[in-house]
Write a structure and sequence with these properties.
Layout: H1 4-8, H2 17-63, H3 65-79, H4 87-91, H5 96-106, H6 112-124
Amino acid sequence: MIDAKELNKVKLVKLSSKEKQTRRLMGDMRKRRMSSNADLSKSIARVQRFSEKINGYTKKALANDLVRRRIFKNQAESSIPLKSEDDDMQESAFTEEDFKRFDEEYNIKFTTRARERAEIQKYIK
């Protein structure tokens, strides 16, 4: 019968210089690959942080009446015909559905003044 100790014995083999060099090179490649993956995950995390910041800035900017008027002015003039050329009317060319969509999609809360302008716009049309 073969003893359990004999089964578990590891036979040591003397490696040639080529095998040693190959193992060392493979270890170095593995270390480099792991470090490059770590660098990649760091850069991905950094990009995600910056994109979250940019999203926050755009939400704040869109919540501002003046910025919204500049951004959507051309769009409002081309898609929604206005009876009055008043700046206030151009600024509030959004319907109640637009306010709801902005609230749901972008989580932007508009001022009551902008909502009142939209109500007036409904009666003018």
